[in-house]
Design goal:
Blueprint: H1 7-21, H2 23-43, H3 46-74, H4 86-97, H5 103-110, H6 121-133, H7 144-161, H8 189-208, E1 211-215, E2 236-237, E3 245-248, H9 259-269, H10 272-281, H11 311-317, E4 327-332, H12 340-349, H13 356-364, E5 373-378, H14 394-404, H15 432-438
Helix pairs in contact: 1-9, 2-3, 4-11, 6-7
Keywords: Membrane, Transmembrane, Transmembrane helix
Transmembrane segments: 12-35, 47-67, 189-207
């Protein structure tokens, strides 16, 4: 995010959160304090009246908008994707397991940083039931077959990472977004007004820069809060009624934690719409981006991904990008949302293990725009810092402009056949190894 991991910025973010979250409460506190000190004369002062009116509006906004809206979002049932077969679950589990750099740290974070002695096999089963089955262990008890499958996954994970979980259930609680309560933090009406002002100013700026706006139907105008005034203008309707977007015209070229963690947690993760979407509308396995999905010319048996177009493969890995497309992963070296070093290593080499020498290689890598998949490693940058500044990072601007040009000298590569000539379903004569993989 924008702030760094310094104590002054940490304090500033915490103070800003209190002011933007508890503006109504602060106003009421002011009212009682000034009344106790100065009586009616003090609360009748013009400055006091101004503060009291704002406080009253904020309290009404909290009581009659936020509380009902929070209750309303909690009533939604989580999105349930189509269930996977056992072979699909196994393929997904072992693929993900191969990319975990530290098994103990991985397990602890999904158990809300509980100590390992508090994490037992049944706790991990709760998490696996959510991750692979979309089941809640309290309402749908697993069958013997499912229990055996889960035990096999846990045994293999223990063997890989050299850890041993005790049997039974410990005090740890697994993080299961679809079944846990939606965590929503209040934001003041003033906060939304500030966001709305900046959003509308940005719309005005984009219009002056020649961007074209594709708007939602007028019937959705009051469904977006803060309202977007640009939706009242006679622009082309978006092809998707539930989404508006901007497009450049063809002529455009061109534990106390840290402050950054509190900023992204409060300003993003606990926003009502974001929290609801993450907890009730998001399926993690449908939102994965494997490296092989961005490198269609390299898909083969050795990579463990085939892009065959079969229902079995598509259910686990998706289709991936089309052959000939280019992708760039832009990653901050101090990203507080991901494990940036492991992610960078995975993008660059396909392995989650890294060394200090690797970091130097990523930092010195010169982006060309000619490769199927490239890494732009922003050393010292946090989540979004490359763009969430007054002047975006120049290399990022160069990536976007290069991909938008048609005269950059790029020649498409790769085979036109989906998955390439080595795809399992495209090979004229399949080896025994391939046949076994197909029948998993």
């Amino acid at each position: 995010m924008i702030v760094q991991k310094t104590w002054p910025q940490y304090i500033a973010v915490r103070v800003l959160i209190v002011m933007m979250r508890d503006l109504g409460l602060l106003g009421l506190t002011y009212f009682y304090a000034i009344f106790a000190l100065g009586g009616v004369k003090a609360i009748a002062h013009p400055v006091s009246i101004f503060i009291e009116v704002i406080a009253a509006i904020e309290v009404l906004f909290y009581l009659f908008f936020f509380l009902p809206y929070r209750w309303y979002l909690q009533t939604y049932k989580p999105y349930r994707p189509p269930p996977m077969s056992r072979s699909q679950r196994a393929r997904l589990f072992y693929k993900a397991l191969s990319l975990v750099p530290d098994g103990e740290d991985f397990v602890r974070k999904w158990m809300l940083n509980a100590h390992m002695e508090d994490i037992r096999r049944e706790n991990l089963k709760d998490w696996l039931l959510w991750a692979l089955f979309e089941h809640d262990n309290t309402t749908n008890r697993p069958t013997k077959e499912i229990n055996a499958e889960l035990d096999q996954y846990i045994d293999d994970a223990e063997e890989k990472f050299g850890i041993k979980l005790r049997s039974g259930r410990g005090k740890a609680e697994a993080l299961r977004l679809s079944f846990d309560p939606v965590i929503i933090q209040h934001r003041s009406l003033f906060y939304y007004m500030v966001i709305g002002i900046f959003d509308n100013l940005m719309a005005l700026y984009l219009l002056t820069q020649g961007y074209h706006y594709y708007k939602q139907p007028f019937s959705t105008f009051f469904k977006v809060f803060p309202v977007r005034l640009v939706n009242l203008l006679p622009f082309t309707h978006s092809a998707a009624d539930e989404m508006s977007y901007w497009e450049p015209t063809p002529s455009i070229r061109g534990r106390t934690g840290h402050g950054n963690e509190w900023e992204i947690w409060w300003a993003s993760a606990t926003d009502a719409g974001t929290a609801y979407t993450l907890a009730r509308r998001l399926c993690w396995r449908e939102s994965l981006m494997w490296r092989e999905m961005l490198t269609p010319s390299l898909r083969n048996v050795e990579a463990g991904y085939y892009a065959s177009g079969s229902p079995e493969e598509t259910a686990v890995f998706g289709n991936g990008v089309q052959v000939g497309m280019r992708s760039t992963v832009i990653l901050g070296g101090e990203d507080c949302v991901t494990a940036p070093k492991s992610v960078a290593s995975y993008v660059y080499s396909g392995d989650v293990r890294w060394s200090p020498d690797d970091i130097e290689i990523w930092k010195r890598y010169e982006w060309t725009g000619k490769q199927e998949l490239e890494l732009m490693f922003l050393d010292g940058k946090d989540h979004g810092q490359g763009i969430m500044v007054p002047f975006p990072h120049k290399p990022i601007q160069n990536v976007i402009e290069t991909y938008c040009r048609r005269d950059d000298g790029f020649e498409p590569f790769g085979d036109k056949f989906i998955g390439g000539p080595e795809s399992i379903y495209g090979m004229p004569q399949q080896t025994q190894e391939v046949v076994e993989l197909k029948n998993m």
